[in-house]
TrEMBL record, chains A, B:
Residues 12-72 form the HTH tetR-type domain. Keywords: DNA-binding. The keyword Acyltransferase does not apply. It comes from Paractinoplanes hotanensis. Gene3D superfamilies: Homeodomain-like, Tetracycline Repressor, domain 2. This is TetR family transcriptional regulator. InterPro entries: Homeodomain-like_sf, HTH-type_TetR-like_transc_reg, HTH_TetR, Tet_transcr_reg_TetR-rel_C_sf, TetR_C_16.
Amino acid sequence: MVRRSGRRPGNQDTRTSILEAARASFAEKGYDKASIRAIAGDAGVDPALVHHYFGTKEKLFLAVMNAPINPGELIPQALEGPREHAGERLIRLAIGVWDSPAGTAALAVFRSALSNEWTARLLREFVVTQILRRAVGEIIEDQAEAPMRTALVATQVAGTMVARYVLKIEPLASADVDTIAAAVGPNIQRFLTEPMPEVFKQS
Amino acid sequence: MVRRSGRRPGNQDTRTSILEAARASFAEKGYDKASIRAIAGDAGVDPALVHHYFGTKEKLFLAVMNAPINPGELIPQALEGPREHAGERLIRLAIGVWDSPAGTAALAVFRSALSNEWTARLLREFVVTQILRRAVGEIIEDQAEAPMRTALVATQVAGTMVARYVLKIEPLASADVDTIAAAVGPNIQRFLTEPMPEVFKQS
């Protein structure tokens, strides 16, 4: 492998040390409680160096997960725009990513979460609690409903991924994105914005 | 472990040989093309002995998969009855099984399908194509729509399982079955019986 110019072996070792410390810290404490300061301490470097290499905690996390995309940018973008088509935009985004060259890596992270407790926890805390729930909160009225609506949206998005890319159930596995958006979009929309009195009467 | 009376070691060996031959045959040929006759041949026993120990091919398959339940009996039962509540009955059945003592074993089969190509193929061929699609066919009008409607139902059922039991997304993970049925049932119902002209115009 050709080493990129300007990156010395020492830097690569530092990056690796930081990533290892971050992986251990996220696994032990979860996304919320892990801190750049503590990760830097574990790696034996200055926190400024962690910021220099990775930027924010979010980006450090994405590097640890080998994430091919940044859902923290993509999901809020998809949910912006006319509220009544947010469900369709969300599933179009998901299919678009998974059908793209980055999809193989996204599938690897997802499969890992399905068989590995700490990846599952981090996917839940990061993608669902941090990003998706915040984006859902922007478009719904009653914020008390945000956690359940977010979880329900996650069932339909994760289920589409499992059926199409993991179990490869036809004709869904070969369907084009317009067909899937027409089929699944309105169901995500119900989870996002339609009244569900029987679901929320207890809350 | 105490051996049950009436089951001699020799019988146990024969059972094991049949299960091993069946596992290999299902993995190589898929559910449809595997035959009791060929499996018996591979195990070096008479086909009648396979029937004696395991009954039908379906039951042999369930034994190979260590399936804790028989979806071939449960799913058609759930879809019988008033057509307009079939979606709710289906998700109640799924949650009921997964919350029961058999749920741990069901989760193990499901996790295996998520990380293992042949388990995925068999889950797809057996549960989806053989059982769920046939049951869906019973309650829908246009049989040409059965494969896609079945795949869509599978997205919502599998997604609920992933979100509740694997990713453990709250408040869904702790919700009672009535809440989940009220939330998810109508979405499965749409996939089962509501017109979806934009999905089926191409077919």
